[in-house]
Structures are given as C-alpha cells and as structure tokens.
Design a protein that fits this description.
homodimer; 555 residues; alpha/beta; Aldehyde Dehydrogenase, Chain A, domain 1; Aldehyde Dehydrogenase, Chain A, domain 2; 7-stranded mixed sheet; 5-stranded parallel sheet; 42% helix; NAD (chains A, B); L-glutamate gamma-semialdehyde dehydrogenase activity (chains A, B)
Chain lengths: 555, 555
C-alpha cells in the first residue's frame, strides 16, 4: 500500500520541512472535486446510521449505548457497542505483534489507505460532525474531513520521518591498527510503546483526535478510540474504515477499536491507568487533562486542555479590517473553538489610527458591530455560528451575562431548516483590568471580554500573567509600531503562544493550517504538546538494537 | 564559531543518520595524537587543583565544600564553591534571553568550541576521572574524555537537527481562485524550556552527564551542573571550560554553573522542584530517579537508573571466546558499570558445543577461570579493575558473599603505585532459578550471579520477568541456534533491551559506541530515555511561531 501512496508521503515529508502552504485533501465540497453524487450519497449514508445499531464488529461489547443529542435538535439515536475496557485492551495486545513486525513502511501504507477511504467518505463525515458537534456544514466538512485528514497525514509524516531516521541495519567496522578490524552488523528495531488510547472531544471529534490516533498507529501501537459521549458517530465511522482497511491488508482489525460508553461508565479512566496502555492522547477540559497527567503515569500523556486566548490591540491602520476579522473569529461556530479569542485588551484611552486617536468605546463598538452584522440575518448567520454543542455552554453563557457591562447581548437565532436547533450569537462583555478573576479563566463558548487596560504595557503584562497561569492556544496583536510588535512577539515566546499579527483579511487567529501552522506549543498550561512536531511522535516508539559479529567474508 | 566547526557538525549529522562506525575525538592517549607533552601537562594541571580552591568565579557561593575521597587513597581536598540554589537559578534565568536569541547555529558553534577545549584538556580530565571514580587510567581517559565528548557531539547533532528541521521563516501562499492569494510570512522561534539541571553520578561523571548537559545547552537552556559529591572535579573542570568559552563568545558565563554541595545540603532536590527548572537529567540510583520522576513534575525528567543486565547462554561454538569475553566484561572497572552483566543464565544440564555437551559446571568454570586469569597478576590487573568507587559497593560485596555458593571469591589486590587504593576482584556466586529475590535486584559492583536454569526457555522467561520488573541497559545471548537467537531478539524487543549476540572477540556487552549504539532504550525501568535519539532532544525546546500578512510587493 505504501507504493500506492509513496508520492503523497514524500510530498508530506517535503511539506513538514518547508512549512509553506500545502494541503493533500481538497477543502472545497464542490461536486467538481468530490463528484456529482458525493454530497447526496454522504447525506444518505449518514442518515442510514440514525436510529440503528452502528455496524462495528468488535470484541467484548456489553450491550449498546446511545448517548448523542444533536445541537440541531434532530433525532440521532445511533446505538454503539458498549465497551468492555479489559476486552478491548486484550484484543489490542493480541493484535500488536504482527503490526509491530510489519515495520514502518507497511504501516505507513496502511494508514495512508485509511486516510484515502476516509477522504472518499468526506460527506458522510461532514454530516456526522455537523449533527453531533453543532458546527455549520462548511466547517463540519472542512474541519471534520479534509483538514483533519491533513493533520493526520502531517502526524504520519513526522512519525515516518522519525522511525526511519535510524537505518534498519548498519555495518560497523572499527579499525584496529595492524589487526583485523572489529566488525559488527547492527539491527535497529522500531518497537511501539504498547496500547494507545485516544480520548476525543465534543467539538472537533476528528480534527483533534486524528493526529494522536495516526501517530500512535503508524508507530506500531494499537489504538483504542474513546469518543466523547456527545460526538461518537464521527469516530465510529473512522474506526469502521480503519478496521476494514486493516483487515483487507491482512492485519487484525482490533488494532483500532471504539470504546463507546455511557458517561457514568468511566471507561476512559479505567483505560488510562491500565498498565498495558502506554500512550494517551486527550483533548478536553483542564481538570480531566490534569487528572490524566497526574494519574496515567505508566503512559506517555499528550493533552490539549483549556486556555485563555488573547488579542492585544495597540494601534491599527485598518480598524474596519480589524473589526471584520475579529468579528468573524468571535462568530465562527459561536466561539466554540479552543482557538477562539476570549480576551480583547484595549487601552482605555483609545488607540492610534491613521485618522487619529480612536476611543476605547469606538474600537469596542466596531468589533461588536461587526459581530452584530455577521449574525443579524438568522438564515445566513446559522451557517457561520452553527449551534451550541451542549447545555454546559448555555449555562456558562447565562452566568457570563452578569459579569460586567454587556456590550453585545447573546441572541437566540431561529434556524430556517432545523426548528429545534439551539443557536446563540456571541456575548461581549466589557471588563476592566482589575477583573482578572473573570478574564483570568476560560469561559468556553460564545463569550468574549473586551478589557479596558491602562495602556499597551498593561495589556502585555495581563497577556503574560494570564497565559503563564492558564495557558493559551492562540494570541493576536494589532499595532503599527514595530517596537510594540517586537515586544509582544517576545512576550509570546516567553509564554509559548503562537502569535498572529495584524490580521485584517481572510486569515483568522483561530484557524491553523496543517503542514504550516503548529497547533498549540506544548509550552504553556493549555497543552503539553504541539500538533504536530518531532516531540509529538518521537516517544511513541523506542528503538531497540541488536548487534552481532559479522563474518569476515560478509564484511 | 560554527564556521570553524561546521565540518565536524556535518560529519556528526551524517553519522547519526548512518549509525556505522565513527568517532570525532581520538581514543588513543598516544603522544602522537595528543602531543608529546600532553600527558605530563595534564597530570600537572590535575595536581595543581589538589588541596586548593577550585578556580570558579560564579555567583551566590556560600563558603566551600570538599567532599571527594579518592578510591586510590590519595588526598584530593579540592574546595569548590558551595552552591546557593536560588542564586544559581536566578543567574541562569538572567543569562538565558541572549542565549535564546542567539539561535541554533550560534549556540551549536559555542558548544562545539567547548568540546574542543575539553578535548585539548583530555589528560587533565583523565586524571580527574581516574582519581575520583576509581577507574583505571585507560578507561578514565577514554570514557572520561573522548567517548564522553563523542556522546556530547552526538547529542548536539540530534538537537541541531531537531531545531533546524523547521525553517526559521516560511512563505505561505494559499490560492483563492480568481482572487488574490492569501499570503503570510511565518516566523518559527526555537524557544528553550527554561533552566536545566544535570545531576551527575559517581562512576562516569562526564560520560553520563554530557549528553544532557549539551542537549539542553545547545537548545537554549542554561544548565546547572550538580555533580555527585564523590566526583566533583571532572564536572568542575567541564564547567570551567564551558564558562570560559561562553564568556569569550560574548555570553554570560552563568549559562553553565556548578552546584557543588555537602551531601546533606539537598541542593539537587531543591533545584529539581524549583518552578524555573524545566529540564532534569539524572544518572544514579533507582530510588532517587523515581523520586525525581514523581516530584519534578514541572520539568521534563530524563533518568538513567539501575537495571539488571543479563546474559543468556544457550550454546556456543567458541566457549573459550565466550569465557574470555564475559570475563573481561566482569573484570572491567570491577563491574562498576551500569552496563556490566550481573546475571548469567545457563541451563543446569549444560550447553551444546562443537565438542559436544559441556556441563553447567564447566561453562561456569570457564567464566570464573577467565576472570581469575585476568585478575591474577595484581600489578597488571589493577589497570583493568581500577578501584572501588565507594564504601557502599564494599558493603554490598560483603553481603553478596553470603547469597549462595561462591564460585569465585572476591580478592583485595595491592596496587603497585597507590598502596591505599581499595581494589577488589569480582565475586561470582552460583544461584538457582528459584533465587529470584536475589538475582531479581541490582547488585551494583563486582558481583555476578551464574544462575542454573531448567533450560533456555526458562532463561528467556527469567530474562523477560526480571527486565520487565527492574529494567536493564544491556543483554547478551550466546547460541548457535538461529531459532533461539530470534526468540531472544523478540524477547529483547518486548522488554526494550539492546542485545549483543555471540560476542567472543574485542567487542563487549558492556560497551557502547557513540554514533552507532544507543545507550538504554527508554522503554524499561532502567531508563526513561535513550542516549541519544530524537525523543531525547525534541522536548528540550518548543517552537513558537508568529505570522503576519505579507505585503504584495514583498510576496
């Protein structure tokens, strides 16, 4: 299978060395790209899963679970096999030796074939992601399928590079002066860590899970996929394709299994501390991520948790562009991205623009107006905002309205197609620099704070303090001063946060492009690793060598 | 400085990709290599340090400490500045920004210049290592200087490769159909983790410390070097050279400091949990290594601890070569290497050879005779065995004599030059397979067990069980059966232990060659990382990016 996908892998290896623009899987859901019938077929396949037992033949199932509730208010009722943690681990261990012995090239070929199958099923995935996470269709398509597949390929490329940087065998010949040289043949085995566990999140079940899933799998580890109870279907579809490709390639399909559970089953925690589980990838809340880091001590633990994403506004030569750009960021998926900006720091005395000083109120007003405009027409807005993923976000939104002066109230929107969809526009609250007990925490959802600071120096100090304590995945700055930009860029390095500078066009602080942008840095409390780099893959396997004397005639 | 050393770095980068034979620093202490006067000058420089204040001008010293006692019984009495942990951390943090901003190429050049200075001072180092660790001169020279420098260069090469696999800047241009493309310039900063701590060991103060020291330093982290109280001088000399080169290059010498202490000062533990300390490299006992892994949670912790190194003897076509080879392994530095074989597993019914079946007693007898022969002439033997590093080894040796049938008694040897040297030959004790409470633990020192097993299948089972539980850095097997060799090689993979096969010549199971052999695997309890691979360096820094729109004319 690697022969079939060799060019793709080579191109991906080139891309991670250049980190310019490149994408392997088309992000346009156009019929010209995916075929005239792809959209309808995908929707039909998605619908065929609803109200039925999900077709997944794996060991140790104890009845079924059906835990998903669509933010769009449609009935899902997909029944998944309820996982027996011990049976999944046992099956994974039994499947491992042949997968390990197959070696990096074979494993890479099989993993790339899985990606090809997933790509061909992108419209099914788009529907599955949309109706479990609440994303709008376009985001569900792009983030759920091609962008997630790009991140998967990126992880495979890093892992393949890492596994093959040491040769499979080496000839070692040490001169001994007048005597015969010492000659050894050395063999270097890539040995996987053990069973890997991937714990998915509610909002981006594929995008956030694929890097860990494929990094672990390609390095030889069987993977148990534990989806969020609210977003099972996208990962169930993923597991199904993976199992089919593995079986076709002659491997045990139990190399990839689904661990669906009732929320009370505590399957994730049981698996995370199982002595055979040696790798855990997690995306989700800080409390559980911290618990994993503290307790899954037998494993390599890779976490992406909460953070407080910040934008510093110092000055601008394009206030309209700034407002348009930030407004889009806040409205997109109702701010339910781990990369969405929460805190916007603006000097209380206003900012410099080519048109002179613009007051704090005017800047804040431009941003709120931008959000209001984007969300004003419900029928169009819902494609941008999507729906609210779960009740926890609604509860948080209700609490946030009382935190300060409301600059823009959150509104329910009526969805033109799904009348029971739970749609909310962003809330924007004004705070002062002294309200660090509020803006110093993550308020996940359609909640943003515009914070009046004494000056940009205080904004930078707040940025440093909050991100040091709570972490961040993204940061932005607007300034026409090179000095200020340099200072913020130094601060961003100090708190290990990727920085977007003066974004006023079609690139947004909350979006990252595979093969070019790193997602998280692994250096602040928001995440202990980056998607995807050398450190993310290098410890998922170990190299174990053997050496023996080489007979002279072989030398 | 990188220009000066560019060829060396390039050759090292080639070597880690090939892992054949290569060495950068000559291992022969010949005057033809190091100069006619080098040996005498090195001895004189070493002696100039004795009974004096070690010349090291660094902040926060609180008086002096003198903790070393030579295994050769000579007076050392070197006085080192007694460390104030807080002052060293503060000085390291103050030194860091300029070192970070210098970038990978400048840092690599400075680090390679430090290695050049250390190499030029190899004879001083050889004496310092010999008289603190008890090693014989030849080992002290080779392991203390050129081999340690090779490992340092190897770590620098891996780290340089990792830091530069992501470009410093990238041009990102995403097509937008008929519209102008989106164009961004991206900058990728290599940002070090923070302050690094290196905790040295008593037996190989330089060889085991250099990889961590230079991996951390070249990736931008200031390094505090905490030597073992019994072997301070080799690392004090190292720190002195590092500080001089750093200052010459215009950097703050406090990027590398020495944390000498009285054993009761608990400086290592204070430093290890300091919030600013983000990397810890440790070589030493399991208990303290485990403590570090449990408690230094704010840091990346790299440990090399104890293990139970095992050799399985199934059959051989060269019993003499086997005995000569294993005998040398046991006698070298009186077994005080973390890689020395402890357990030799032999079927009670004997083994097959071309001359027919050879009984257990004969095989064991050939090994004990080989050790006895190597250690029979005290005047020559002491160069091989060296001296006993500290009283803990003597105590252990005394206890081990009572563990079973003594096949070879440990003997004191009189050193022809140093009458007070504490020299002991290896003890070899016979055990049975049931004595796992004895051979299942590490007995560090000149202590080996020959264990009578039911058959090779039981030997392999014992190997798996003991190494799974306690870890190992090395393993060996002797067999004429490809089937047995394959089975042991699979077992070695399962317990993540590097395997040497049928060594009967001039390569020994306890020796590893930089740029070719990995030291430890990082996959069993003996060590959580390998010297040196991608995983060892990739998490000592993070990449933090910034991105901004590129003006069209620049694009």
């Amino acid at each position: 299978m690697l022969t079939k996908h060799r060019d793709l892998l080579d191109r991906a290896l080139q891309a991670i060395g250049e980190r310019g623009y490149w994408s392997a899987y088309p992000e346009s859901p156009s019929p010209r790209v995916y075929g005239e019938t792809a959209a309808d077929e995908g929707k039909a396949r998605f619908e065929s899963y609803l109200g039925a037992d999900f077709p997944l033949d794996q060991p140790g199932s104890q009845g079924v679970v059906a835990t998903e509730r669509s933010p769009y208010g449609i009935a899902l009722d997909v029944r998944y096999p309820r996982a027996d943690a011990g049976a999944l681990v046992a099956a994974a261990r039994a499947a491992q030796p042949a997968w390990r012995d197959a070696g990096p090239a074979v494993r890479a070929g099989v993993c790339l074939e899985i990606l090809a199958k997933l790509s061909a099923d992108s419209f099914t995935m788009a529907n599955a992601v949309q109706f479990t996470t609440g994303q709008g269709f376009m985001m569900a398509f792009q983030a759920g399928a091609p962008h997630a597949l790009d991140r998967a390929l990126e992880a495979i490329a890093y892992a393949y590079s890492e596994m093959t940087r040491t040769p499979g065998t080496a000839h070692w010949e040490k001169p001994q002066g007048k005597h015969d040289p010492l000659v050894l043949t050395k063999t270097f085995h890539v040995v996987p860590r053990g069973v890997a566990l991937v714990i998915g999140c509610n909002t981006f079940p594929t995008w956030n899970s694929y890097p860990g899933l494929f990094a672990s799998l390609v390095t030889g580890n069987p993977v148990i996929v534990k989806p969020h109870p609210g977003a099972v279907l996208p990962l169930a579809i993923t597991v199904r394709h993976a199992r089919e490709v593995l079986a076709e390639a002659g491997f045990d399909p139990n190399l990839v299994t689904l661990a669906a559970e009732d929320p009370g089953d505590k399957v994730a925690s049981a698996l995370a501390v199982d002595p055979a589980v040696r790798i855990v990838d997690f995306t989700g809340g800080t409390a559980y991520g911290d618990w994993l880091e503290e307790n899954a001590r037998q494993a390599q633990v890779y976490t992406e948790k909460a953070g407080v994403n910040t934008v510093i506004i110092d000055s601008t030569d394009d206030l309209k562009g700034l407002a348009r750009n930030l407004g889009f960021t806040l409205a997109l998926y109702s701010g339910q991205m781990c990369t969405t900006t929460q805190n916007i720091l603006i000097p209380a005395g206003g900012i410099d623009t080519p048109e002179g000083k613009v007051s704090f109120e005017e800047v804040a007003g431009a941003i709120t107006a931008s959000v209001a405009k984007l969300t004003g027409d419900a029928a169009r807005a819902v494609d941008l905002t999507g729906a609210i993923v779960n009740d926890a976000v609604l509860d948080r939104l209700a609490r946030a309205e009382k935190l300060g002066e409301v600059l823009l109230a959150s509104q329910p929107l009526e969805h033109p197609v799904y009348p029971d969809a739970v749609v909310r526009t962003p809330l924007i609250v004004k705070l002062s620099a002294g309200d660090s007990d509020v803006y110093g925490e993550e308020w996940f959802g359609p909640i943003a704070f515009i914070v009046a600071t004494a000056d940009t120096a205080e904004s930078i100090r707040i940025f440093r303090d909050v991100v040091s304590a709570r972490g961040a995945l993204t940061a932005g700055v607007y300034s026409t001063s090179e000095e200020v930009l340099d200072e913020v860029e130094r601060a961003a390095q100090d708190v290990y946060t990727h920085l977007s500078v003066n974004l006023t066009g079609g690139v947004f602080v909350n979006q990252s492009a595979a093969f070019s942008d790193f997602h998280a840095s692994g250096g602040n409390p928001a995440a202990n690793s980056a998607l995807t780099d050398g450190a993310y893959v290098a410890n998922r396997f170990r190299v174990v060598q053997s050496r023996r004397h080489t007979a002279r005639e072989e030398a």
